[in-house]
């Protein structure tokens, strides 16, 4: 299944981050790559999927527990990125945390 995270059998959690960007990169791309690399090393991280065009994007990260999500939110480097997001990179964003209870996949 290329393009999709290989998640375990549910239940697990999804953090859905939708955003509308400001103009210009302003270091965003480099920080986004750094956040994916850092998150992937966090205990409880299960995977990530992301899509973006010039203005808006959606990123879904998958975690084993709510505690893992909380620890990621509190990560010091992630907090720096959060603040830069509010002050520099995003016009607006929404964050949703969901429990995944069922999943199915299709492959050709």
Automatic annotation (TrEMBL):
It holds the Pfam family ABM. One of its GO terms (molecular function) is monooxygenase activity. It comes from the Bacteria. Residues 21-84 form the ABM domain. The keyword DNA repair does not apply. Coiled coil: none annotated. The keyword Transferase does not apply. Keywords: Monooxygenase, Oxidoreductase. PANTHER family: ABM DOMAIN-CONTAINING PROTEIN, BLL5343 PROTEIN. This is Antibiotic biosynthesis monooxygenase. It comes from Evansella tamaricis.
